[in-house]
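Researcher: I'm preparing a figure for a lab meeting and need a structural model of a single chain. I don't have an experimental structure, so a prediction will have to do for now. The sequence is pasted below. Please return the structure as C-alpha cells so I can convert it later.
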Amino acid sequence: MAAGHPALARAAKATVQRILTQQALRPDKVTYYLERRDPAFEAKMREVLLVYQEVMLQNQTGGVPEASPSVITVSVDEKPGLQALANTAPDLPPVPGQHSTVARDHEYKRLDTASILAALDLQTGHVTTRVERRHRSREFIALLQDLDRYYPPECILRLVLDNHSAHLSKETQAYLATRPNRFKYVPTPTHGSWLNMVETLFGKMARTFLRYIRVQSWEELRDRILLGVSEINAAPVVHRWKRFDALMT
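Model: Understood. Here is the structure written out cell by cell.
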C-alpha cells in the first residue's frame, strides 16, 4: 500500500502465484547448481578418462601383452542407506476387471538400512559385492580383501574411487601397506561421482531387483541383493565409457 498498490492487500495467494508465473524472473523458485570446489577437477577427470580409454583399448585388443605387468581396473563405490522395508499388509495380486497391477498397502515398517559395497571389473563386467549394515573402514577393507582373494596375486588392482574417509583412513592405509604394489588408487574429483562407472551398476540394481523390494528381515534384503549380483555375474556385461570429449580439450 505504501508503494501505491492498495489492491494487492486483497490479492489472494492464487493471484500472487499467477503474477509471479508470468514474469521472466522467478524469485519464488530455487534451482540448484554445483560449484566446482576441487581446484584439480579437470586434471583428475582427465586421469580417470585416460584410464577408461586405456581399458577400452585393452578390451578391443584382448588384454595387455604377456610381457607387461597385468593391470586390472575396478570401479569401486558404496551405495549407503538402502532401507529394508517390510509390508504391514500382504500384497494383492492383479485381478482382471478390478486392478491390473499388484496392489500394495501404503504403510510399511522400517527394519534397518544396508550399505552395498561394490567393485565393478571394467574388463570383464564381474562384480565383487558386500552388503553391510555400515560402510566404515573395516567394511571397505573387507571388500579389498575379497578383491585380493579373487584376482591372481601377480596382478595390480587399479581402483577408480572417490575420496570417502574409509578409503583414506589410517586403518585402510595400514592394510594397504601389508599388500605393497597390489592396489593403485585413481581418485575421482570432488563432486565427480558421475565419473565413476560403478554408478551405472547401482542404477541397474535400482531399476531391476531393488525396485519395489519388500522383505521380512534385513538378512533377507542382504541375501536378495547378493542373489541379484550373482545373476549379474552369470551373464556379465562390460560397462564402457563412451564420451572422451574432455581429453580433446
